[in-house]
Amino acid sequence: MTTIGNSRLDIFPLALGGNTFGWTADETASFEILDAFRAAGGNLIDTADSYSAFAPGNSGGESETILGNWAAARGNRDEVMIATKVGHHPEHPGLAPANVRAAADASLKRLQSDHIDLYYAHSDDPDTPLAETVAAFDDLVRDGKVRYVGLSNFSPARVSEWLEIADTHGFDAPVSLQPHYNLVHRAEYETGYAPIALEHNLGVLPYYSLASGFLTGKYRSQDDFTGRVRERMASRYLTDAGLAVVDALGEIATAHAVEISTVALAWLLTRPGVVAPLASVSGIEQLPALLDATRLTLTDLERDRLTALSNAVGA
What is the pLDDT of residues 274-283, one digit of tens each? Predict the structure, then answer.
């Protein structure tokens, strides 16, 4: 187990992403995934109020609804921690104080819960004064609706500004960051966010930790992407340098008798500030490879080899 920043949230060092629930995993499949994750010791599920408004026929909130139904059916709400986000739901866009409060209440209703363990500002809202947003999140903590605050998709400068406002006014400070970070996308986190995370003890839970599936080794040519849901997001990594990283992951995976994705996540767990990568699956058969990352210890040589190869990607 590991602790998220300055919080009292003790979590399994892998967080289950809920973006597939109600999208590529229906409720039955989602329940199977959640049951297996919990049985393996996993206890943090990450979702957002907007998941999955991006899918045809959906309006947002589908993931939270499934998660709430599962926790109610299993009677285990106090055994798991739920992280969700505000700012992108079609009916609750942005971070204006009234919207933050209304969106939190809507999430709580879908989750069938009286509290959110970790509530993220999903992305910055330049149209709302940041001090007003920070105060709104603090109100939710003081009201007991939210236990801790997190930030996702804020620039390093705006993360620092949020922290300064919280310190100046005595507001509840964020305990976590959710940046885009993986073996083929490093510079943004390492140069901008890592120094802030380490200085303020913010727990880092990277998203796109498998580069939209590229770091599973399934995609080695453009033909492999044809017709795939993640084609637009993952095909950008299809370069000689990117494939060299995947080849090295494959060799290391073979040496340890694990999957390629296991090694990619294990590398992330060695990085400064990272407490738990975020990863999602559409079927229960994909879950063991992710869980294995928490038990895999890379040698210094393996870790350094992957780091050197990913340097060449330049992203």
Answer: 999 999 999 9
pTM beyond 0.85, yes or no? yes
- Give 212's contacts (C-beta < 8 A, 6+ positions apart): 230, 233, 234
Per residue in 31-62, pLDDT (tens digit) is 999 999 999 999 999 999 999 999 999 999 99
Task: Give the start-end residues of each E strand in 65-190.
Answer: 81-86, 88-89, 92-93, 116-121, 146-152, 176-178
User: By the 8 A CB rule, do 100 and 133 touch?
Assistant: yes
Residues in the chain, total: 315
User: Could you give the C-alpha distances from 295 to 12, 21, 81, in angstroms and in order?
Assistant: 11, 26, 21
What is the reported pLDDT for 232? 59
Q: Which residues contact 10 (CB under 8 A, 6 or more apart)?
A: 1, 2, 3
Bridge partner residues of 93 (DSSP): 87, 88
Positions of the chain with pLDDT under 70 = 221-234
Residue type, 92: H
User: With contact defined as beta carbons under 8 Å apart, do 22 and 31 qualify?
Assistant: no
Which positions are annotated as active-site residues?
51
Q: Where are the beta strands (DSSP E) in 190-288?
A: 203-204, 278-279
Q: Are 182 and 240 in contact (CB under 8 A)?
A: no
Of 14, 106, 115, 104, which is closest to residue 62 (Cα–Cα)?
106
